[in-house]
Every structure is written in structure tokens, then in C-alpha cells.
Write a structure and sequence with these properties.
Blueprint: E1 4-8, H1 20-31, E2 37-43, H2 50-53, H3 63-66, H4 70-73, E3 78-82, H5 90-100, E4 106-112, H6 114-127, E5 131-140, H7 145-159, E6 164-165, H8 172-177
Helix pairs in contact: 6-7
């Protein structure tokens, strides 16, 4: 089985004072090339979406905001576009099946927002029988630490504390030996 990393919504429109440092940590992790496959999700806030209609949230509507952070793009094997919280789309299912001739047994996850898209994607993977492993030190929320920490707390309950990696040096040896 290949070690797969899922980079959730690390896009220009999600970079702010709460996420900037985490973005830099993600770039440094990607520079180590310890993952066999790196997949990114790319959120697009389509015209008339519930984000716009119900939440009155109009960000990530233009190409500049939707672009994946430049320093991350070169490490990506696949990009999956999405218009909702979860990145676990039919496109992702097909990619995961093509990588391992079956759905993967585990996927490492990091990115933005811990309390939204990371959480939704992890739960959907879990419910389809794939073990989501959250690299919590590489997750953040545009709403700040309070929201990111809340997302981690909920994920601990929904997918299990043993699937949340906190305060670890992520190395090739670490990911290959994580049971």
C-alpha cells in the first residue's frame, strides 16, 4: 500500500493570520517527500451555493482565491475540485482505487479548516472503511485556534483518538510504522 497524503483546501483564499504559519509547516513537510502520493482538494464557492445563500459567505469565488498555494502545487499528484465541505467525492474514490487497485486502508490528512472541510472529509473516509489519520499539527482554521481545536476534539470522538497525530515529528519511518 502506498502512503497517501490528502492536502485539504490549502488555497490562497484560506490563508490568513490563523493559517499562515500552518501553511509554511505544510510546505516544509512536503519538501521531505515522505509520501508516495499527494492529493489536494480545491474548494470552489459556486454562484448560488448554500455558503452564499445561507451563510452569506462570498469568498473563494474567483480564480486567485481558489488557487492552491504556489509552494504546494509542485508536490501534488492529483487535484480534486469540490464545492462542499467534504473532499471525499467520486473523483477521489476513483483516484484512491487507481492507486492501490482498491480503496486504500488509510489516508493521512492535513489542511484547512480543521472544523469544516478536514472534519467532513475525514468522517466520510471513515464511514467508507478508510482510516483517516489527521496530522493535527498541520491543520488550522481560518476562524482561529478555538475552532481548529474544536475540530480536533470532535474528530477524536468521531474517528478515534488513535487517528489524531499530535506533536509528532512526521518522518517516513513514522508513517510506515503507524498501526
Amino acid at each position: 500500500m502506498k502512503n497517501i497524503l490528502l492536502v485539504v483546501d490549502v488555497q490562497n483564499g484560506f490563508i490568513n493570520s490563523y493559517t499562515e504559519n500552518t501553511k509554511n509547516k505544510i510546505v516544509k513537510l512536503l519538501e521531505t517527500n515522505i509520501f508516495d502520493i499527494v492529493i489536494a482538494t480545491k474548494f470552489k464557492n459556486n454562484e448560488g451555493s448554500n455558503f452564499e445563500k445561507i451563510l452569506k459567505w462570498n469568498k473563494l469565488k474567483n480564480e486567485k482565491e481558489q488557487e492552491i498555494v504556489k509552494d504546494i502545487e509542485k508536490y501534488l499528484d492529483f487535484i480534486i475540485e469540490k464545492d462542499g465541505y467534504s473532499g471525499y467525492t467520486n473523483d477521489m474514490i476513483n483516484i484512491l482505487k487507481s492507486i492501490n487497485n482498491n480503496l486504500s486502508d488509510k489516508v493521512y490528512i492535513l489542511g484547512f479548516d480543521t472544523d469544516g472541510c478536514v472534519l467532513a472529509t475525514a468522517v466520510d473516509l471513515f464511514e467508507d472503511g478508510i482510516r483517516p489519520i489527521i496530522l493535527a499539527d498541520y491543520c488550522a482554521s481560518t476562524g482561529g485556534d478555538e475552532y481548529s481545536n474544536a475540530g480536533i476534539k470532535v474528530l477524536q470522538r468521531l474517528i478515534g483518538k488513535n487517528n489524531i497525530v499530535l506533536n509528532k515529528n512526521i518522518t517516513k519511518n513514522f508513517i510506515e510504522n503507524l498501526k
